Amino acid sequence: MSHPSQFTLLRTRRFLPFFITQLLGAFNDNIFKQSLILAILYKLTIDGDRSIWVNLCALLFILPFFLFSALAGQFGEKFNKDALIRAIKIGEIVIMAVGATGFLTNHLELMLLALFAMGTHSALFGPVKYSIMPQALHEDELVGGNGLVEMGTFLAILAGTIGAGIMMSSTHYAPVVAVAIVGVAVLGYLASRSIPRAAASTPGLRLNWNIFSESWATLRLGLGQTPAVSRSIVGNSWFWFVGAIYLTQIPAYAKEWLYGDETVVTLILTVFSVGIALGSMLCEKLSGRKVEIGLVPFGSFGLTVFGLLLWWHSGGFPQNVQANDWLAVLSYGQAWWVLLDILGLGVFGGFYIVPLYALIQSRTAENERARVIAANNILNALFMVVSAIVSILLLSVAKLSIPELFLVVSLLNIAVNTYIFKIVPEFTMRFMIWLLSHSMYRVEHRNLEAIPDEGAALLVCNHVSFVDALLIGGAVRRPIRFVMYYKIYRLPVLNFIFRTAGAIPIAGRNEDIQIYEKAFTRIAQYLKEGELVCIFPEGKLTADGEMNEFRGGVTRILEETSVPVIPLALQGLWGSFFSRDPNKGFLHRIWSRVVLVAGEPVQEPTPARLQEVVGGLRGSVR
């Protein structure tokens, strides 16, 4: 079934003004910060080591995330989000006016003050930026919206960095920079005026102005969420740890290992940013318009592989008397491998980060969402500071080379994400489901809108293969509790997935009465809690491709809990490796088309009636 592209969001008022506002904010951040760094390095008369002043800039920008993120989280819940964004953008105009004055008067302290204030602006904007999205977007738009935001953010960072370089190359750079930063701030405010109203989630919240106690409380709130959310916050911060190391080392790597000039630095940053943008954009298509955390292990795997390849491909470039420009570097075949590695890091970074942001947004209560995102921002800042310390220790104390630093980070990535996936096996489970439905089969969906977005419902489906539950679970946006024959539930490897997904094993009454009764108790409990439950009324896999007679278990379920019954049918699985076809083979029907069809709720859901409806949905395709 075709769906509109995520780019259609850019034609809606509920998303476009917000998107432009955050895009211009990220762009202005980087124009100002990069212009200030270049002014310190090349333009201003400064006493002392210029590198110390550059590092001070990094500290001044990141410090507000420690100090004010908790306060920002409270603001994001207490006040209307659209009004809060406009207030922040007015503040940006004032801040940029101060920064512009600093540039026009060559007043370094004034520029540094504006930089600290701009960091405060970004710290205040972060929680409202990510908490407004679930209010403005439908659930099936959340991944696409996050993909657009991440794409826009990294491209804005790139554009701001390049734009600053161009402006600072001018002899009369000060008025050019001054006009640019104030002008972009004004445009950001004008865009924010069109953001639709987004109501406060907790208007009665009492503000705690003690930034230290509230920061600790905010961190405890974020890390005290469900394991999936709390470890997603850790995973998100780990991404920024890894990203900060790569981005910080790119200038030195380009100079010392590629023997390139500043154009090579720009080339690498461009390739990395395009990679992030591409990965972020692909997330919606690969996830099927749902929050698919199965992409996170895939992204983690790619970050490790391409990090190792970058280490492997580094070195061996001929050194010239003069630094190579980007065209000269591209004349070496090995440079293309390095750029491919950088691109891969960006693409798989997008696969990693976008689902994590979407999961945090979708699984956090609305009255806590802004504060949880604030906790994420505090931890992000902490991990980025730690990344700088780790880099200094490994490069200066342990005397590692930059490629060896990349090697260490890649190996650490394996360890950190193994910990995350062990604590939250749902990541691995969803990855295995995603891999199955995107590698062995081409799964199509029809009329899945018939499955309610919320509330209890009973799904009934024909039973063709050992992986029916995995394919259905990968197609439906909501979590599903599957009822399955206990011997299938206990199959090696698959048991891990079924157990993690909370599947319900069942046996025949005469086979094991205890398992039988416990299954119906759990079914009733899940339905009363408003969850989706899926059963295979045939009670066993088909042995010839035709449907077996539906048993009466569905009648007992509905007698205990009256809920809508949604019929499903799987087409095209018979003859595949996981079916009971005697002529099957591992490669037989691999990458074949499998269709999952949903029907409208059945009004009189007797076993005979359900078998008739499911058979009609399946048709003649086995």
Automatic annotation (TrEMBL):
<keyword id="KW-1133">Transmembrane helix</keyword>
<dbReference type="GO" id="GO:0022857">
    <property type="term" value="F:transmembrane transporter activity"/>
</dbReference>
<feature type="transmembrane region" description="Helical">
    <location>
        <begin position="400"/>
        <end position="420"/>
    </location>
</feature>
<dbReference type="InterPro" id="IPR036259">
    <property type="entry name" value="MFS_trans_sf"/>
</dbReference>
<feature type="transmembrane region" description="Helical">
    <location>
        <begin position="295"/>
        <end position="314"/>
    </location>
</feature>
<dbReference type="GO" id="GO:0016746">
    <property type="term" value="F:acyltransferase activity"/>
</dbReference>
<feature type="transmembrane region" description="Helical">
    <location>
        <begin position="233"/>
        <end position="252"/>
    </location>
</feature>
<feature type="domain" description="Phospholipid/glycerol acyltransferase">
    <location>
        <begin position="457"/>
        <end position="573"/>
    </location>
</feature>
<keyword id="KW-0812">Transmembrane</keyword>
<protein>
    <submittedName>
        <fullName>MFS transporter</fullName>
    </submittedName>
</protein>
<feature type="transmembrane region" description="Helical">
    <location>
        <begin position="148"/>
        <end position="167"/>
    </location>
</feature>
<feature type="transmembrane region" description="Helical">
    <location>
        <begin position="83"/>
        <end position="104"/>
    </location>
</feature>
<feature type="transmembrane region" description="Helical">
    <location>
        <begin position="334"/>
        <end position="360"/>
    </location>
</feature>
<dbReference type="InterPro" id="IPR011701">
    <property type="entry name" value="MFS"/>
</dbReference>
<keyword id="KW-1003">Cell membrane</keyword>
<feature type="transmembrane region" description="Helical">
    <location>
        <begin position="372"/>
        <end position="394"/>
    </location>
</feature>
<feature type="transmembrane region" description="Helical">
    <location>
        <begin position="110"/>
        <end position="128"/>
    </location>
</feature>
<feature type="transmembrane region" description="Helical">
    <location>
        <begin position="173"/>
        <end position="191"/>
    </location>
</feature>
<keyword id="KW-0472">Membrane</keyword>
<feature type="transmembrane region" description="Helical">
    <location>
        <begin position="52"/>
        <end position="71"/>
    </location>
</feature>
<dbReference type="Pfam" id="PF07690">
    <property type="entry name" value="MFS_1"/>
</dbReference>
<dbReference type="InterPro" id="IPR002123">
    <property type="entry name" value="Plipid/glycerol_acylTrfase"/>
</dbReference>
<dbReference type="GO" id="GO:0005886">
    <property type="term" value="C:plasma membrane"/>
</dbReference>
<keyword id="KW-0813">Transport</keyword>
<dbReference type="Pfam" id="PF01553">
    <property type="entry name" value="Acyltransferase"/>
</dbReference>
<feature type="transmembrane region" description="Helical">
    <location>
        <begin position="264"/>
        <end position="283"/>
    </location>
</feature>
